[in-house]
């Protein structure tokens, strides 16, 4: 992590205090498992350089401590996106009770609609 001067508005404070933070995380030199490193390197993210370094610039807050926390949280989000395994959906069939309920509701609906038709006059 490296403290740098923030861009944008902030009055005289901008010219004096280094509140923004540059966080650099080298993927290849990290202690992450090899498969997670590969997934991170294959991510299509502008924050990941060709050398395999994640670069995050945090300057939302006027405090260097808050910007450090923000940068670390954003790094954690990137890493979690890769490390969390997505469970695949197991296709299931509808139960017998749910089929019966659907058919009963269909019959009720059909009856309602048939009653909405023209009334036949009987003589």
Automatic annotation (TrEMBL):
It holds the Pfam family RF-1. Residues 88-123 are annotated as: Disordered. It comes from Nitrosomonas aestuarii. Gene3D superfamilies: 3.30.160.20. Residues 5-21 form the Prokaryotic-type class I peptide chain release factors domain. InterPro entries: Pep_chain_release_fac_I, Pep_chain_release_fac_I_sf. One of its GO terms (biological process) is rescue of stalled ribosome. GO terms for molecular function: peptidyl-tRNA hydrolase activity; ribosome binding; translation release factor activity. Residues 90-100 have a biased composition (Basic residues). Belongs to the prokaryotic/mitochondrial release factor family. NCBIfam families: PRK09256.1 (NF006718). Coiled coil: none annotated. This is Ribosome-associated protein.
């Amino acid at each position: 992590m490296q403290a740098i001067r923030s861009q944008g508005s902030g009055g005289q404070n901008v010219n004096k205090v280094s509140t923004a933070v540059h966080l650099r995380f080298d993927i290849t030199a990290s202690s992450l498992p090899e498969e997670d490193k590969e997934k991170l390197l294959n991510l299509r993210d502008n924050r990941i350089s060709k050398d395999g370094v994640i670069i995050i610039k945090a300057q939302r807050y006027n405090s260097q401590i808050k910007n450090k926390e923000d940068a670390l949280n954003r790094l954690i989000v990137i890493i979690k996106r890769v490390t969390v395994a997505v469970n695949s959906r197991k296709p299931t069939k509808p139960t017998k009770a749910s089929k019966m309920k659907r058919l009963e509701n269909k019959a009720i609906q059909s009856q309602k609609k048939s009653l909405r038709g023209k009334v036949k006059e009987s003589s």
